[in-house]
Specification:
Length: 246
C-alpha cells in the first residue's frame, strides 16, 4: 500500500506516541501540541505535533478525548500492536492547514530497499526481508535525514513550521530533534561497524541500488542481499521494530 508522505509520516508519529503511552495536550503551547509520556503532564513533553497534524488526527478519529487531552483511539492501538500501519485506506487524504483535504498524490517510486524487500526468500511464499527489517531501514533513513545528512523530502508534523510567526520553543525543539537523530545515527553506525555502515547508508539513505553498493563497497557480486539483511537485523534490535519485542 502506497500512502502520501504526510500520511506515512503521521503513521510514524502515532507509533512513537504509542511507544511512550502519550497524552496529547488539547491546548497547544505556542503553535504545537505537546505529547506527555505515560499520560503524565508533570513529565517533560517528548513529542510535539503541529496544529495541522493534530486536526488531521482528530478529523480521522485516530485520537480520542481522555482527561484533559487526547490519547490514541483503541482501533489505532490495536493496529500498531499487530504491527500494522496506523494509517488505513480510509485515511489516505492528507490534511492541509486550510482545512481542505484533497486527494493525496501517491508516491509510485520504489526505493532500492523496497525492491530488495520484494525479492523472494529461501522459503516459498516468504520475502527476503521481514517487515521489521524494512522498517529498521526506513528508520535509519529518517535519522539520516533529520540529522542533516541528507535532504528531507517529506513533511514532518513534529518539526518547526514554516509559516510566519514565532513558535514557543520551536527552535529548541528542532535542535533537540536533530541532536536526538544524530545520536541514534551514530549508534546505528557503531552497531553496524565500518564494514556494514557505509553500504547500509548508501542503500537505505542515499537510495543507491544494490548493484552500485556492491561495486562501491567491493562486495562480491551477488553478496549484497545477504550483507544488507545482516545489517538490517542489527538495526531491528536498535530501533525495536519487531512487533512484541522491546
Amino acid at each position: 500500500m502506497n500512502y502520501s508522505s504526510e500520511a506515512l509520516e503521521m503513521h510514524h508519529i502515532l507509533r512513537d506516541i504509542h511507544k511512550v503511552d502519550g497524552l496529547i495536550a488539547t491546548n497547544p503551547q505556542g503553535s504545537d501540541h505537546p505529547v506527555f509520556p505515560c499520560r503524565d503532564k508533570r513529565k517533560r513533553p517528548v513529542i510535539w505535533i503541529e496544529q495541522a497534524g493534530f486536526k488531521w488526527l482528530r478529523g480521522q478519529k485516530m485520537i480520542t478525548p481522555h482527561m484533559r487531552g487526547y490519547v490514541l483511539a483503541s482501533s489505532v492501538t490495536r493496529r500498531l500492536e499487530r504491527g500494522e500501519s496506523a494509517v488505513t485506506e480510509a485515511s489516505r487524504e492528507a490534511y492541509v492547514p486550510d482545512a481542505s483535504r484533497p486527494a493525496a498524490n501517491l508516491n509510485r517510486r520504489i526505493t532500492p530497499l523496497e525492491r530488495l524487500a520484494r525479492r523472494g526468500g529461501r522459503e516459498p511464499g516468504k520475502r527476503w526481508l521481514s517487515a521489521a527489517e524494512v522498517e529498521a531501514g526506513k528508520a535509519l533513513a529518517r535519522d539520516y535525514m533529520r540529522a542533516g545528512e541528507g535532504q528531507m523530502v517529506t513533511q514532518d508534523f513534529m518539526s518547526a513550521g514554516v509559516e510566519g510567526g514565532d513558535r514557543n520553543g520551536a527552535a529548541e525543539r528542532a535542535m533537540l530533534a536533530r541532536i536526538t537523530a544524530s545520536t541514534r545515527l551514530r549508534s546505528a553506525q557503531a552497531l553496524l561497524g565500518p564494514d556494514l555502515a557505509p553500504g547500509l547508508i548508501a542503500l537505505c539513505c542515499r537510495q543507491e541500488s544494490l548493484e552500485e553498493v556492491e561495486r562501491t563497497e567491493h562486495w562480491a557480486a551477488g553478496s549484497g542481499k545477504q550483507i544488507v539483511k545482516l545489517g538490517l537485523a542489527r538495526l531491528v534490535r536498535l530501533y525495536g521494530t519487531e512487533a512484541g519485542v522491546g
